[in-house]
Amino acid sequence: MYKSLFFLIWFQTKQEDASVDAAWPNEAWSDVAKEIFHQLNAGTENGDWKRHPGYLRTGERRLYSRNISEQGKGFEYAIFLNKKEQRATCVCQFGPYLQGPPGHVHGGALATMLDAVIGTCVHDALEGFWLTANLNINYKKPVPLGSTALFHAKVVRQDGRKGYLSAYVTSADGQTTLCEATSLFIKLSREQIEKANKHLPQDSQSNTTAK
Question: pTM for the whole thing?
């Protein structure tokens, strides 16, 4: 019942453009990004890890981290999940539309990806639908545009409806820490989910009935 709102997001994504799985290398991915992707994807063969699909939407409602349809211009990424270990790893290449300081990635773009990776991790690892309550980031090094980074997130503990997670980001070779983060997620109650459903399009609410 608690996953109804989460299911709606997934359902609308599939409905608007189910043919494009953006969590897979395209022509804009660098050789470095592709190599890391295939290394991570090889870890899915034994069943411990799985790749999280990311369907590209072209309608009025778009996932923020995939709202740029031009390949290579925004976030190019894939998230891999290990439910047993409650961990997530993501390979991400940053395009030119994500600039902050000249030639470097905007800090908000890094925060977006941290929230996306941590949020995907908590929804895979823990039961229910969770929302970000707090995200603390320590930026260590500037990240060049066009570069590839690795995001790592894990569940630290769950205390009732509170989920505590940590994350860090490294360069593609894993030798340089780019930023670190901690996060608090709150699990929505059934009442909160039902209240949120009232604000959704009428043609979608039938898909989110709590059971």
Answer: 0.85
